[in-house]
Amino acid sequence: MRLGSHVLVGVVFLGLVTFYTWPLMRAPSDLPAPQDDPCSRLYILVTHVIARNLLTHPGDLLQGTAFYPLGNSITLAEPLLTPALLVASLAGLTHDAVLAFKVALVLFWAVSGWAMYAVTFWLTRHHPAALVGALIFVLCPARILYYGEFQIEMAFGVPLAVYALVRFLEEQRLRHLATLLVVFWMQAVAVVYYGVILGLGLAVVAAQYVALRWSCWRLRTLVAAALGSAALALALLPVARPYFVTRQELGLERGLDEAFGRSADLLTYVSTDGTWLARPVPIRYVAETPLFVGLSALGLAVVSLAWLRGDGQRVRGRAERWLAAGVWVCLTLTILLAVAGRPIRVGSVRSAFSTAGVALLVLALARHGAEGWERWRQDIRDRRLTDRDWVGSLLVLIAFAVLLSLGPEARVAHRPLGGGLYAWLYPYLLPLHAIRGATRIGLLVVFATALLAAFGLKWLSARLPAWGRRAAAVAATLLMLLEFGTVRLPYAAVATRPRAVDAAIRADPDDVAVLEWPANVPGPDADAMFRSVDHGKRVVNGYAGFPIDLLEELSGLLTTPGTPFPVPEAQAALRRIYPVRYLVVRLADPGLLNEWRPVWLALRQTAPPLLRFRGTFGNEDLYEIVPLPERGVRVERWVSYGFVRDHPVLDISLRPLRTDRALEQWVDIDLNRRRVGRVPLDGVARATVTLARPFFEAAPNVIGLKYRYRRPPAIRDARYRIGGTGVVSPGDLRVVSAGQPQGSSSSIQLDGVELAPDHRGYNLVALSPRGELVAADVFDTFLSAEAAHRLAAWIRALPTGTIVAGAVRDEGSGQLTADAVGALRTLGVAGDLRGHFREAQAFVGVTGAPPGSALEALGPRVIELVVGHPEMVAGQTGASVGFELTAFALHRG
């Protein structure tokens, strides 16, 4: 192919994609989407943020502006690094993010057509075959019906990488290896899903090639492949590392159960839904999208099987013939098991369908190995794959991809066939933990079927006269264009023009965050992300494939009825997110339930001090969130990695709620439970603290202000005596125990500092007479008698005179032993919890004290024991203890 041919192919496919997705490009600034699918708006923001990060913080490439205050939020979607460069350039030229996105979509889609055409031509040396293969790969229903999923159309690397891999294995030249690594990198950093899927496909292709060609390997080929793999891993690290960090800090990964609802059914590959065959042959099973490639494509793919006849260049060995027969037997058995439509037990194996399928793959690879052995014995040194080799290898790739795309449980027409290959590989193949849409592995089937159809047309053309070749090429092309042209696209117009409220928010020069309501609803959340491109602020909303606990909790609180509205818990949640400044209420959004509309309308007049009504802008009400002043004993602010990275200097102003010369009061400042400063609280206090790394990159960074105090020992009066033990408490001590159904909680606080582990069973805290923490542990005496023995040993190991506070949470009587009760009595405890199922028990005792001398209580209620000044203990009603935060600001410094 000359350069002009390449350009012509690209232009042709650009026109075809534009035509077959019409009216996608009819109104450049409108965003038609399939049934209001939010994915387009999600990926407009992703490409915008990635392009900005490349210019400002390339080391923090996947730090997004949605899901605030989470960081690494792009890891909840796809990185789209490759297309982001084009989108950013187009947006800079057109000043229209939607137009730039749509142009990039069509261009990259067309590029995948060029790539498939070029690769198919290089393999077949047949332009009609190349056109047929490219048409199937680009315009089949599996691609067209996915038009709203921007990332799905970024498949340009699949044909190029497979071709480069085989050429490298055939010729062992470094330029082919370099091409493979560059193409794979561009594909993987564009779409992680495709990186994983393509990697699996390349492994299957490489294994087959190695089995087929045993001779003429060079040592430098293996060395180059190893060094190239290492270089590729390093090149992928900037994109891969944030995913590992998100998994570590947030625990987010794709579980096996998530793939059940997004896996293919065998009927997915013959589903006629959306095509012209839907009426005469109504086969409907769509898992995300049908994977049917069309009758014309399947017909030509079947013709390609003619290449599997003997090549005439060598004699087939006995092992090869037997293994080939085994392949056909396994294929027949697999088909029969699928037709049976139910799991069949063979011995101890219930997943007979998948077992037969895997046996088919193993035997096919072994047959390739036997063929390679015979070629080596016959001294056939040609390393290039023949057309027959390609067809056989593509069939194995199809079988592998079909089995894997069925997900954890193979199904046909919704009927289970037993466990699937996906479930078997999941524990060992870690890349599968990054994907949940097993259906998308079907892209390998589409690619391989497209190549098979091209080989089928080549075989047919070679056996026809000149006029027949031309007629076959024209007929195949026209049939495919007509067949794919009948796919019905479900367009739904999405409003994208800037809103009046966006202009009001954009006028604020500060780096602040916005929450749009309703939230935790796909449509409004994705639209809120999209609107942030216009107003330029961070957004608490977010749409992705992962459920986000923070957003779910906030949504639940803001839909809790109560007076005042929002309820105090919702107001506290809004205060925590710094610097959330605006609340946008989308009054006309379908996601806002009708019963809530009058509540939000009334809020214009009855808003609590936290919310300041700024006005109505079209269909949106705008509130400013005013979080200060705030009172408490602990105040938290949650910020994202990107925000604290850019604003590391903290300024605060606060004052004590209680003035008492007998108290030493202060506030500890901590970052993610790591103390970074202390502010004396003897009056109005101000402080400036620079927050230093390490920061959480994915989880919210929690800045905590914790009230602390100390009462001098000289003024501790009778209120500090611990029961009848004769020992004085080192501070204000509060112990709370609750069993079911009263509350299932435990708390042990010294001077307002929580020390209890707060788990089921006996929570014990040991203190020295000076108030130093000696030990803290929990013993689940509901579950285990061994825990009771450990409890007894733990108490007896403490020095005499140690103060021990205990609180039972939920239930502690089930496996409580006499030995444990005896050990508790050495603390002065007289109560015996045995026989008091799910009752509470709390005590403060001293090692070596006589039984009955401890401060204790037991019973079917919430128990609270206080030693010291009750008004200084957290939880006391009406206590004026703590501080008032009057100023809190993070800035660049």
In terms of topology, how is this protein built?
Blueprint: H1 3-20, E1 31-34, H2 39-56, H3 81-94, H4 97-124, H5 127-139, H6 141-144, H7 157-171, H8 174-190, H9 192-212, H10 219-250, H11 295-303, H12 318-340, H13 352-377, H14 387-405, E2 409-412, E3 415-419, H15 421-425, H16 442-462, H17 466-485, E4 491-494, H18 500-506, E5 513-517, H19 522-535, E6 538-539, H20 549-558, H21 568-576, E7 580-586, H22 597-606, E8 611-617, E9 620-625, E10 630-632, E11 634-639, H23 641-646, E12 649-656, E13 664-671, E14 674-680, E15 685-690, E16 701-710, E17 733-739, E18 745-750, E19 753-754, E20 761-767, E21 773-779, H24 785-796, E22 803-810, H25 818-825, E23 840-846, E24 855-859, E25 863-867, E26 883-891
Parallel strand pairs: 5-6, 5-7, 17-22
Antiparallel strand pairs: 1-4, 2-3, 7-9, 8-9, 10-26, 11-16, 12-15, 12-26, 13-14, 13-16, 17-18, 17-25, 18-19, 20-21, 20-22, 22-23, 23-24
Helix pairs in contact: 1-4, 2-3, 2-19, 3-4, 3-8, 4-5, 4-7, 5-16, 5-17, 7-8, 7-9, 8-9, 8-10, 9-13, 9-14, 11-16, 12-13, 13-14, 14-16, 16-17, 18-19, 24-25
Bin the strand percentage: 15-25%
The overall pLDDT, averaged over residues, is 91
Radius of gyration, taken over Cα atoms and rounded to an integer in Å: 34 Å
Helices, by number, come to: 25
- How would a textbook summarize the main sheet? 9 strands, mixed
Low-confidence parts: none
Task: Tell the overall outline.
Answer: globular
Structural class: alpha+beta
Q: Care to count the β-strands? A: 26
As a percent range, the share of helical residues equals 40-55%
Q: What oligomeric assembly is this protein in?
A: single chain
Task: State the end-to-end distance.
Answer: 59 Å
